[in-house]
Automatic annotation (TrEMBL):
PANTHER family: ABC TRANSPORTER ATP-BINDING PROTEIN ALBC-RELATED. This is ABC transporter ATP-binding protein. Keywords: ATP-binding, Nucleotide-binding, Transport. The keyword ATP-binding applies. The lineage of its organism: Bacteria, Bacteria division TA06. SMART domains: AAA. Residues 5-235 form the ABC transporter domain. GO terms for molecular function: ATP binding; ATP hydrolysis activity.
């Protein structure tokens, strides 16, 4: 299995605070990986380093085999990043934002409008997509940013809390899209508090606490690692995060 995402001894400090502590991880093509952990554990910091938004204090990171230090442009061309707080230019409509993102990524004009329409239909945003984004709810912004991320057909997705603000029908759709992208050979790294999302779509799970990976593996492998032989992700999550705090 080729590697879409690779971290080697990745660390990040903010002053005296060590936010991410020596994380090493490989995520293969076609794999959905869930990164779980409490607030302040280092999940978002890890994703931002992989997206090239934050500079690590130590270690290395690569996307589709491109080192982010040596080949940042090539690495970012492979990448789709969905932040925890979806950003859209307030004075643009959702449709205008989709067109802007497509052009920033260099998507060819031929077929662009058809692709935009397909995504508008897929996310069922027809009713409000031509309104200015300043009127959008969090869920509307989230759906627009998700659609925009799919436009340039990235090979790697970094996704921070994707289900916040979405209604149940949209949650089902987003899960389907993640699974479809994995079947195409894409690598997906999802940071989430939603344990049911990790349980239902992720091939492997990493539990992070105090900036360190406390546990890593499939759900079955995590059960084997459990000292108490827990059989559900909620109990496993609590065991591994609490033991790392001691």
């Amino acid at each position: 299995m080729s590697r879409g995402i690779e971290l080697k001894n990745l660390s990040k400090s903010f002053g005296a605070k060590l936010a991410v502590d020596d994380i090493s991880l490989s995520i293969g093509s076609g794999e959905i990986f869930g990164l779980l952990g409490p607030n302040g554990a280092g999940k978002t910091t890890t994703l931002k380093m992989l997206a090239g938004i934050l500079q690590p204090s130590g270690g290395a990171r690569s996307i589709c085999g491109f080192d982010l230090e040596q080949s940042p442009t090539q690495a970012k061309q492979c990448l789709g990043f969905i932040p925890d707080d979806p950003f859209i230019y307030e004075k643009l409509s959702g449709r205008e934002f989709l067109r802007l993102v497509a052009r920033l990524y260099g998507c060819p004009d031929k077929g662009l409008e058809l692709r935009v329409e397909e995504l508008i239909d897929r996310f069922e945003t027809q009713e409000w997509i031509d309104r200015r984004a300043e009127s959008y709810s969090h869920g509307m912004r989230q759906k627009t940013v998700l659609a925009a991320t799919l436009l340039h057909q990235p090979k790697v997705y970094l996704i921070d809390e994707p289900l916040v603000g979405l209604d149940p029908a949209s949650i089902i759709l987003v899960k389907q899209i993640f699974q479809e992208e994995a079947k195409k050979g894409c690598s997906l790294l999802i940071s989430t508090h939603t344990l049911s999302l990790a349980e239902s779509v992720c091939h492997r799970i990493g539990i992070i606490a105090n900036g360190r990976l406390a546990a890593l593996g499939t759900l079955e492998e995590l059960m084997e690692l459990s000292q108490h032989r827990h059989q559900d992700l909620e109990s496993l999550y609590l065991e591994f995060t609490r033991s790392n705090e001691q």
